Amino acid sequence: RAGRIHNAIPGATAVRGRCGGFGGRCPCDDDWNGRLREIHTELRFDIPELAKMNVVLNRAWADSNVEDPDSLVRRTSLTGGMTFVHDLDAGTSQDINELWNQAMNEQPIECGCDGNAVFKWTNAMLESPGQRSVKIDGIEFHWRIRPGDKVDIVTRYDATAIIRDVLTNNLLFISSAGVVSGDVEEELVKGLKK
Fold first, then answer.
1. What's the half-sphere exposure (Cβ side, CA atoms, 13 Å) at 18?
2. What is the pLDDT of residue 102?
3. Quick check: 8 and 178 in contact, CB under 8 A?
4. Mean pLDDT of 22-32
5. How many angstroms separate the CA atoms of 118 and 98, rounded?
6. Exposed (0-12), middle (13-18) or buried (19+): which is 77, by Cβ within 10 Å?
7. What is the mean pLDDT of residues 21-46?
8. Are 159 and 56 in contact (CB under 8 A)?
9. Residues 17-39, buried b or exposed e (16+ Cβ, 10 A)?
10. Closest Cα partner for 84 from 98, 74, 73?
């Protein structure tokens, strides 16, 4: 835990004056021996990449509803957040992004590996802006997880002043904001409040 000393850090002399039986001085590197001073946190955000998505048309529906059913069997571009699958039996709708996220959650893979998942419906329509709605039997996703860049976050504590309890020989570290940390900070804060 940390305590706070208000207006107590202009220099070691002022700290010493406020703390009575405590001796204050500027910190040196040896003060940190055996103490945690710096924390390194390494993060890497792995990136999922959609390799391909196959839409399985309901051929019987296409034969009876489309003049040229083969015209539906072609490569096309779909906008993930604006392309929906409406499950008419369940009364639900999901966009392509939601389905892909669901696929990745249900089929987790390690970074550098390939994943795939298939969704199937008995009565569903695919709807996308600028294209006619079509009945589909399923969608298959193929993806890969690519390693992202590593980010190193360094958290470092540099004290502005050091106070040593002359009775116990414990050190208290004081930041420029007046935050106190150390073995006996509770006793120091109690002493300042008196």
1. 21
2. 95
3. yes
4. 71
5. 14
6. exposed
7. 77
8. no
9. ebbeebebeebeeebbeeeeeee
10. 98
100 confidence band (pLDDT: 50, 70, 90): very high
Structure confidence by residue, pLDDT tens digits, 151-182: 999 887 777 888 776 677 777 778 777 777 76
pTM here is 0.59
The pLDDT value recorded for residue 93 is 95
- CA dist., res. 146 & res. 149, Å (int): 10
Q: Which phi and psi angles does 160 have, rounded to 5°?
A: -90, -30
Full 3-state SS string of the chain? CCEECCCCCCCHHHHHHHCCCEEEECCCHHHHCCCCCEEEEEEECCEEEEEEEEEEECHHHHHHHCCCHHHHCCCCCCCHHHCEEEECCCCEEEEHHHHHHHHHHHCCCCCCCEEEEEEEEEEEEEECCCCCCEEEEEEEEEEEEECCCEEEEEEECCCCEEEEECCCCCEEEECCCCEEEECCHHHHHHHHHC
**8: confidence class by pLDDT, cuts 50, 70, 90:** very low
Q: Six-digit token pair at 80?
A: 């993930």
State the Cα–Cα distance between residues 4 and 179, nearest whole angstrom: 4
